[in-house]
Specification:
heterodimer, A: about 110 residues, alpha/beta, Transcription Regulator spoIIAA, six-stranded mixed beta sheet, B: about 140 residues, alpha+beta, Heat Shock Protein 90, five-stranded antiparallel beta sheet, 5 strands, about 35% helix, about 30% strand, globular
Chain lengths: ~110, ~140
Amino acid sequence: MQLHFNVKDENLIVRFTGELDHHTAQEIRNKIDNKYKNDMLKNIILDLKGINFMDSSGIGLIMGRYKTTRANDGSLVLINVNSRMEKILTMSGILKIVKVYRNEDEALHNI
Amino acid sequence: MLDNSMKLEFPSKSQNESFARVVVASFAAQLDPTIEELADVKTAVSEAVTNSIIHGYENSLGIVYIECEIKNNKLEIIIEDKGKGIENVNEAMEPLYTSKPELERSGMGFTVMETFMDHLEVYSEEGRGTKIKMVKEFKSVSIKE
Protein backbone atom coordinates (compact mmCIF):
# COMPACT_ATOMS: atom_id res chain seq x y z
CA MET A 1 0.00 0.00 0.00
CA GLN A 2 1.34 3.38 -1.00
CA LEU A 3 0.16 6.71 0.32
CA HIS A 4 0.41 10.07 -1.32
CA PHE A 5 -0.44 13.34 0.41
CA ASN A 6 -1.39 16.59 -1.18
CA VAL A 7 -2.27 19.71 0.82
CA LYS A 8 -4.57 22.40 -0.59
CA ASP A 9 -5.31 25.22 1.86
CA GLU A 10 -6.52 23.48 4.99
CA ASN A 11 -7.47 20.27 3.20
CA LEU A 12 -5.46 17.07 3.29
CA ILE A 13 -5.97 15.01 0.15
CA VAL A 14 -4.98 11.38 0.62
CA ARG A 15 -4.43 9.03 -2.31
CA PHE A 16 -3.92 5.31 -1.86
CA THR A 17 -2.54 2.67 -4.15
CA GLY A 18 -3.01 -0.97 -3.20
CA GLU A 19 -5.09 -2.96 -0.75
CA LEU A 20 -6.73 -1.66 2.39
CA ASP A 21 -7.04 -4.38 5.03
CA HIS A 22 -6.21 -4.83 8.72
CA HIS A 23 -2.53 -5.28 7.92
CA THR A 24 -2.15 -2.04 5.97
CA ALA A 25 -4.75 0.04 7.85
CA GLN A 26 -2.68 0.58 10.98
CA GLU A 27 0.26 2.16 9.19
CA ILE A 28 -2.03 4.21 6.97
CA ARG A 29 -3.98 5.69 9.87
CA ASN A 30 -0.80 6.62 11.74
CA LYS A 31 0.62 8.38 8.68
CA ILE A 32 -2.62 10.24 7.94
CA ASP A 33 -3.05 11.32 11.56
CA ASN A 34 0.55 12.53 11.82
CA LYS A 35 0.30 14.56 8.63
CA TYR A 36 -3.08 15.98 9.63
CA LYS A 37 -1.86 17.04 13.09
CA ASN A 38 1.61 18.25 12.13
CA ASP A 39 0.35 20.43 9.29
CA MET A 40 -2.59 21.62 11.43
CA LEU A 41 -5.14 20.86 8.72
CA LYS A 42 -8.91 20.90 8.99
CA ASN A 43 -10.49 18.59 6.41
CA ILE A 44 -9.53 15.25 4.94
CA ILE A 45 -10.40 14.14 1.42
CA LEU A 46 -9.87 10.40 0.92
CA ASP A 47 -9.39 9.49 -2.73
CA LEU A 48 -10.30 5.80 -3.08
CA LYS A 49 -9.44 5.56 -6.77
CA GLY A 50 -6.25 3.52 -6.39
CA ILE A 51 -7.65 1.01 -3.90
CA ASN A 52 -8.13 -2.39 -5.47
CA PHE A 53 -9.29 -4.20 -2.34
CA MET A 54 -11.00 -3.04 0.83
CA ASP A 55 -12.59 -4.96 3.69
CA SER A 56 -14.21 -3.74 6.91
CA SER A 57 -10.85 -2.48 8.14
CA GLY A 58 -11.33 0.30 5.60
CA ILE A 59 -14.65 1.20 7.22
CA GLY A 60 -12.86 1.41 10.57
CA LEU A 61 -10.23 3.66 9.04
CA ILE A 62 -12.84 5.98 7.51
CA MET A 63 -14.87 6.12 10.75
CA GLY A 64 -11.73 6.92 12.71
CA ARG A 65 -10.74 9.81 10.41
CA TYR A 66 -14.35 11.04 10.49
CA LYS A 67 -14.09 11.32 14.27
CA THR A 68 -10.67 13.00 14.11
CA THR A 69 -11.86 15.69 11.70
CA ARG A 70 -15.13 16.22 13.57
CA ALA A 71 -13.25 16.75 16.83
CA ASN A 72 -11.31 19.47 15.00
CA ASP A 73 -14.41 21.14 13.49
CA GLY A 74 -13.52 19.77 10.07
CA SER A 75 -15.00 17.17 7.78
CA LEU A 76 -14.00 13.99 6.07
CA VAL A 77 -15.22 13.28 2.56
CA LEU A 78 -14.66 10.51 0.02
CA ILE A 79 -13.98 10.85 -3.69
CA ASN A 80 -13.69 8.40 -6.60
CA VAL A 81 -15.78 5.70 -4.90
CA ASN A 82 -16.34 2.78 -7.26
CA SER A 83 -19.31 0.40 -7.15
CA ARG A 84 -17.35 -2.22 -5.21
CA MET A 85 -16.42 0.26 -2.47
CA GLU A 86 -19.94 1.57 -2.47
CA LYS A 87 -21.31 -1.90 -1.73
CA ILE A 88 -19.32 -2.28 1.48
CA LEU A 89 -19.67 1.38 2.48
CA THR A 90 -23.45 1.34 2.04
CA MET A 91 -23.72 -1.88 4.03
CA SER A 92 -21.86 -0.31 6.94
CA GLY A 93 -24.19 2.70 7.03
CA ILE A 94 -21.22 5.08 6.96
CA LEU A 95 -22.53 6.89 3.89
CA LYS A 96 -25.30 8.30 6.07
CA ILE A 97 -22.71 10.48 7.81
CA VAL A 98 -19.84 10.74 5.33
CA LYS A 99 -20.28 12.71 2.10
CA VAL A 100 -19.14 11.34 -1.24
CA TYR A 101 -18.08 13.57 -4.15
CA ARG A 102 -17.20 12.54 -7.67
CA ASN A 103 -13.74 14.10 -7.75
CA GLU A 104 -11.30 16.41 -6.02
CA ASP A 105 -12.62 19.61 -7.59
CA GLU A 106 -16.18 18.84 -6.51
CA ALA A 107 -15.00 17.98 -3.00
CA LEU A 108 -12.88 21.15 -2.65
CA HIS A 109 -15.77 23.25 -3.90
CA ASN A 110 -18.28 21.79 -1.42
CA ILE A 111 -16.26 21.01 1.67
CA MET B 1 -17.34 -29.98 -13.35
CA LEU B 2 -15.17 -32.23 -11.19
CA ASP B 3 -15.29 -31.69 -7.46
CA ASN B 4 -12.11 -30.36 -5.94
CA SER B 5 -10.63 -29.44 -2.57
CA MET B 6 -7.63 -27.78 -0.93
CA LYS B 7 -6.17 -27.07 2.49
CA LEU B 8 -4.02 -24.21 3.65
CA GLU B 9 -2.44 -23.31 6.96
CA PHE B 10 -0.30 -20.38 7.98
CA PRO B 11 0.80 -18.47 11.10
CA SER B 12 -1.54 -15.76 12.35
CA LYS B 13 0.52 -12.87 10.99
CA SER B 14 -1.40 -9.98 9.47
CA GLN B 15 0.70 -10.13 6.26
CA ASN B 16 -1.05 -13.45 5.58
CA GLU B 17 -4.51 -11.83 5.34
CA SER B 18 -3.72 -10.82 1.78
CA PHE B 19 -2.04 -14.16 1.05
CA ALA B 20 -5.09 -16.12 2.27
CA ARG B 21 -7.71 -14.22 0.27
CA VAL B 22 -5.63 -14.38 -2.90
CA VAL B 23 -5.11 -18.17 -2.54
CA VAL B 24 -8.83 -18.81 -1.99
CA ALA B 25 -9.73 -16.53 -4.91
CA SER B 26 -7.25 -18.39 -7.13
CA PHE B 27 -8.83 -21.70 -6.11
CA ALA B 28 -12.30 -20.30 -6.84
CA ALA B 29 -11.20 -19.14 -10.29
CA GLN B 30 -11.88 -22.62 -11.75
CA LEU B 31 -15.60 -21.96 -11.20
CA ASP B 32 -15.41 -19.17 -13.74
CA PRO B 33 -16.70 -16.53 -11.32
CA THR B 34 -17.55 -12.95 -12.18
CA ILE B 35 -15.20 -10.26 -10.87
CA GLU B 36 -17.95 -9.28 -8.45
CA GLU B 37 -18.34 -12.83 -7.08
CA LEU B 38 -14.58 -13.18 -6.70
CA ALA B 39 -14.37 -9.87 -4.84
CA ASP B 40 -17.15 -11.06 -2.51
CA VAL B 41 -15.17 -14.21 -1.66
CA LYS B 42 -11.93 -12.28 -1.15
CA THR B 43 -13.62 -9.83 1.19
CA ALA B 44 -15.35 -12.53 3.25
CA VAL B 45 -12.11 -14.55 3.59
CA SER B 46 -10.25 -11.41 4.61
CA GLU B 47 -12.80 -10.74 7.37
CA ALA B 48 -12.69 -14.29 8.75
CA VAL B 49 -8.88 -14.51 8.71
CA THR B 50 -8.56 -11.06 10.29
CA ASN B 51 -10.95 -12.16 13.06
CA SER B 52 -8.80 -15.22 13.77
CA ILE B 53 -5.65 -13.11 13.91
CA ILE B 54 -6.97 -10.17 15.95
CA HIS B 55 -9.53 -11.86 18.16
CA GLY B 56 -8.75 -15.58 18.12
CA TYR B 57 -5.04 -15.33 18.74
CA GLU B 58 -4.96 -11.70 19.91
CA ASN B 59 -1.28 -10.86 20.22
CA SER B 60 0.02 -14.43 20.35
CA LEU B 61 0.97 -16.50 17.36
CA GLY B 62 -1.14 -19.46 16.30
CA ILE B 63 -2.10 -21.29 13.14
CA VAL B 64 -5.03 -20.36 10.91
CA TYR B 65 -6.50 -23.29 8.96
CA ILE B 66 -8.43 -22.97 5.72
CA GLU B 67 -10.22 -25.73 3.87
CA CYS B 68 -12.04 -25.22 0.61
CA GLU B 69 -14.24 -27.59 -1.28
CA ILE B 70 -15.91 -27.21 -4.63
CA LYS B 71 -19.12 -29.10 -5.26
CA ASN B 72 -20.87 -28.35 -8.51
CA ASN B 73 -21.11 -24.57 -8.62
CA LYS B 74 -20.66 -24.08 -4.87
CA LEU B 75 -17.51 -23.19 -2.97
CA GLU B 76 -17.46 -24.10 0.71
CA ILE B 77 -14.81 -22.36 2.80
CA ILE B 78 -13.91 -23.33 6.36
CA ILE B 79 -11.67 -20.98 8.31
CA GLU B 80 -10.60 -22.16 11.74
CA ASP B 81 -8.39 -21.07 14.60
CA LYS B 82 -7.47 -22.70 17.92
CA GLY B 83 -7.57 -19.37 19.71
CA LYS B 84 -9.57 -18.06 22.63
CA GLY B 85 -13.02 -18.44 21.09
CA ILE B 86 -16.02 -16.12 21.18
CA GLU B 87 -17.93 -15.81 24.45
CA ASN B 88 -21.19 -14.76 22.83
CA VAL B 89 -21.49 -15.53 19.11
CA ASN B 90 -24.86 -13.79 18.67
CA GLU B 91 -23.50 -10.60 20.18
CA ALA B 92 -20.32 -10.79 18.05
CA MET B 93 -22.43 -11.14 14.91
CA GLU B 94 -24.45 -7.99 15.53
CA PRO B 95 -23.57 -5.21 13.08
CA LEU B 96 -21.22 -2.62 14.59
CA TYR B 97 -20.43 -4.78 17.63
CA THR B 98 -16.72 -4.86 18.33
CA SER B 99 -14.73 -5.97 21.34
CA LYS B 100 -11.80 -3.89 20.12
CA PRO B 101 -12.94 -0.31 19.38
CA GLU B 102 -9.46 0.94 20.32
CA LEU B 103 -8.10 -0.80 17.21
CA GLU B 104 -10.67 1.06 15.07
CA ARG B 105 -12.44 -2.18 14.23
CA SER B 106 -15.76 -1.34 12.62
CA GLY B 107 -17.67 -4.33 13.97
CA MET B 108 -18.81 -5.19 10.47
CA GLY B 109 -16.81 -8.39 9.88
CA PHE B 110 -19.59 -10.93 10.31
CA THR B 111 -22.07 -8.66 8.52
CA VAL B 112 -19.72 -8.57 5.52
CA MET B 113 -19.40 -12.37 5.55
CA GLU B 114 -23.18 -12.79 5.80
CA THR B 115 -23.90 -10.27 3.05
CA PHE B 116 -21.23 -11.34 0.57
CA MET B 117 -21.64 -15.10 0.96
CA ASP B 118 -24.75 -17.23 0.50
CA HIS B 119 -24.43 -19.11 3.76
CA LEU B 120 -22.55 -18.55 7.04
CA GLU B 121 -22.19 -20.71 10.13
CA VAL B 122 -20.12 -19.84 13.17
CA TYR B 123 -19.03 -22.40 15.75
CA SER B 124 -17.05 -21.21 18.72
CA GLU B 125 -16.02 -22.51 22.09
CA GLU B 126 -14.26 -20.42 24.70
CA GLY B 127 -10.66 -21.47 25.09
CA ARG B 128 -10.88 -23.85 22.14
CA GLY B 129 -11.24 -21.68 19.07
CA THR B 130 -13.59 -20.60 16.33
CA LYS B 131 -14.67 -22.24 13.10
CA ILE B 132 -16.42 -20.35 10.32
CA LYS B 133 -18.13 -22.17 7.51
CA MET B 134 -19.21 -20.13 4.50
CA VAL B 135 -20.66 -21.10 1.15
CA LYS B 136 -20.69 -19.11 -2.07
CA GLU B 137 -22.80 -20.18 -4.97
CA PHE B 138 -21.49 -19.10 -8.35
CA LYS B 139 -24.58 -18.32 -10.32
CA SER B 140 -22.90 -17.48 -13.57
CA VAL B 141 -21.16 -20.86 -13.91
CA SER B 142 -21.12 -21.94 -17.50
CA ILE B 143 -22.22 -25.46 -18.32
CA LYS B 144 -19.27 -27.67 -19.13
CA GLU B 145 -19.12 -31.33 -20.06
